[in-house]
Amino acid sequence: MMNAMPEPTESLIEYPSDFPIKIMGAMQDAFAQTMVELIMLHDPTFHPDKMEMRPSAKGTYLALTATVRATSREQLDNLYRALTSHPMVKVVL
User: Fold this and answer.
1) d(Cα 47, Cα 34) in Å, to the nearest integer?
2) Cis status, amide bond into 16, omega within 30 of 0
3) Which of 16, 47, 68, 74 could be a cystine partner for 43, CB 3.0 to 4.6 Å?
4) Residue 3 falls within a domain, yes or no?
5) CB count, 10 Å around CB of 75?
């Protein structure tokens, strides 16, 4: 009998590796610091120096690029879930 669920394909990411995550949200004072704290729950080695910040042209939104140390797919999945479910976050790529 065949499995109903196919086996997951091999990851294209080698672990451990540095992995950039783009996070976009409304421009507000605590956004970047809140994202740093959230990321550190999943990557204790993360340092704010590993984050780039770019405001939108009109200054309405802030785009962050955080380079995390990815140690497993599970870690990345958990981080993505935490970021996408956070009320300050609009988009995670």
Assistant:
1) 13
2) yes
3) 68
4) no
5) 17
What is the per-residue DSSP string for 68-92? EEE--HHHHHHHHHHHHHSTTEEEE
CATH number at 51 reads: 3.30.70.260
d(CA 68, CA 26): 22
- Interatomic CA distance for residues 66 and 47, integer angstroms: 9
SS3 53: strand
Q: Is the pLDDT of residue 6 over 50?
A: no
Domain count, the chain: 1
Half-sphere exposure of 46 (CA within 13 A, CB side): 25
